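Hey,

Quick one before I head out. I ran the complex with magnesium ion overnight. Inputs first:
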Amino acid sequence: MVETEETLISLHSVGKVFHSGHGSVAALSGVSFDIRRGEILGVIGQSGAGKSTLIRCLNYLERPSSGSIEFEGMPLGSLDAAGLRTLRRRMGMIFQDFNLLKTATVYENVALPLRLLGFSKDEVTSRSKRYLDVVGLSDKFEAYPSQLSGGQQQRVAIARAIAHGPEVLLCDEATSALDPENTESILHLIASVNEEFGITVVIVTHEMRVIQAVCDRVAVLSAGELVEMGSLNEVYTDPKHPVTRRLLAGILPREMTAALVDKLGVHGSVYSLIFAGDVAGKPVLAETLRKFKVSANILAANIIELKKEPFGFLVVAFSGEEQEIRGAIAYLERMDVRIKKWGGEHEMA
Ligand SMILES: Nc1ncnc2c1ncn2[C@@H]1O[C@H](COP(=O)(O)OP(=O)(O)OP(=O)(O)O)[C@@H](O)[C@H]1O
Ligand SMILES: [Mg+2]
């Protein structure tokens, strides 16, 4: 990970209104956040939330109706046509449906845009070869897109998007048309592009598993508004907005657990425990139960990976003397377990 604290792109109260025959749609309203140099930022939201509009505003394919976007402090609204061309050279973009030229070979799909950008003949050749090698398609130069799998086509699109040496890679639902296996390998490739070339990546998706596979931070969009943003750990540990909770429902079954807590009538003594990072691999709960006179009824448990780091989620009902339970909880906290009294989850979801 090459993430830094340095702001690369900042959005200030960005709004976008589309006007059509049927009236106007506010696709984005009051969206403000920073994109840090070197990070992989995920933007998640349901269909129509404004994700594509947002990502298209970043390279000014779409002009915000209000607010401003700055790239390294430079307001994009002040750029003329030449300035916008320069800006777009610093970015690359990939899409759900790959957008390859069907009548051109794999090699030509990468080489052609480089020629249009004015690279020399030698540079075009060396860059096309190098980046097709980076994406693992050295043996497919002469193939046509129709002869490739979806995953391979997206690899060509990635080579094309990064061959000119951009600083930012914008991905709009880049894995949505792929099966789980190809999704994983494309996400892996995007992560290695981020790491190897230090390219800042913005990933737009409607799938939480895409976010958790590669992103450093996540922004949640709902009906054109930014409703939550934070590191993966922050957002998975303590999702605040109902939309975020809903997106996480399949991964961390808070609602199901809430129903179980109600059914068992164990409200008072129920805690949610989060084991993130190193602590996830340790038998901390077993140790706690040995040290204190408490027993634990496990109501829910799941372990996932957040960007390759284990992240365990446990809901337990403790029973025993109050003092022993307090001791157990203090011990778990000392062992770096994030522990919280269970409650309210079902009301908020
Ligand atoms: N060019 C346009 N003209 C009119 N309305 C538009 C236009 N582009 C987007 N919209 C509207 O703006 C809203 C946000 O659209 P957007 O494509 O950004 O959503 P999204 O989050 O990318 O959705 P999806 O997950 O389905 O791709 C929607 O209500 C959409 O209908
Ligand atoms: Mg979209």
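The chain has a mean pLDDT of 93.

Talk tomorrow,
K.
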